[in-house]
# Entry
Amino acid sequence: MRLNKFLAQSGVASRRKADELIQMATTEVNGKICQDPAYSVKDSDVVKYDGQQISPILEKVVIMLHKPKKVITTVKDTHGRKTVLDLVPSKYRLTPVGRLDQDTTGLLLLTNDGDLQQKLTHPRNQIPKDYEAVIEGKITSSQKQKLAKGIYIGDKEYGKAEIISQETKKSRSTIILRLRQGKKREIRRIMYRFKLKLLTLKRIRFGGLSLGNLSENNYRTLTDKEVKTLNG
# Structure
């Protein structure tokens, strides 16, 4: 088994991310740093990541968390801030599937299945993710058309979204947007370009899964059927 796959199946990260981690000299094989993601791991090899011995996980798990505000989507934080893993005590080595920024709430998946994580986060797979945004004002028909084609949001990137619904009351609108790219802070950057004030942002769907009535700060393990839905 290739070393990057070994890390992925040990729940360290997706195979793509494992390539980066290995090249950053985080991984030892038999007491020596190995920076070759293609290294073929033998049954007799002792592999350590970040100083801890790891091995492929036979039991795979996917957890859905309703992430609250002011919690960081990372495995650990060097500034001592609360992370999503502080909310999900688990015997498994879980990693977040993608990210929600600090002020965004809603559906976040965590898993120890590196291959599934890679599938769900790779841009080519275009996994749909729905967000509920509350803004001052509303998105016009012209802006909807621009969003469907893609608008420049800075840093040589284009934001693209489908407006599923928009309900306006007085001066505020509640919008459901569907993203498939997953650019960093994409919706916030889109609203900034449109000069619209974003009041709240919550992810409500990921692929075929809905947040449903899972309350903030709580989490649950996905059923086998739900995991199959993610695997397509």
Summary: The chain has three domains: 3-53, 62-123+209-231, 128-206. The mean pLDDT is 92.
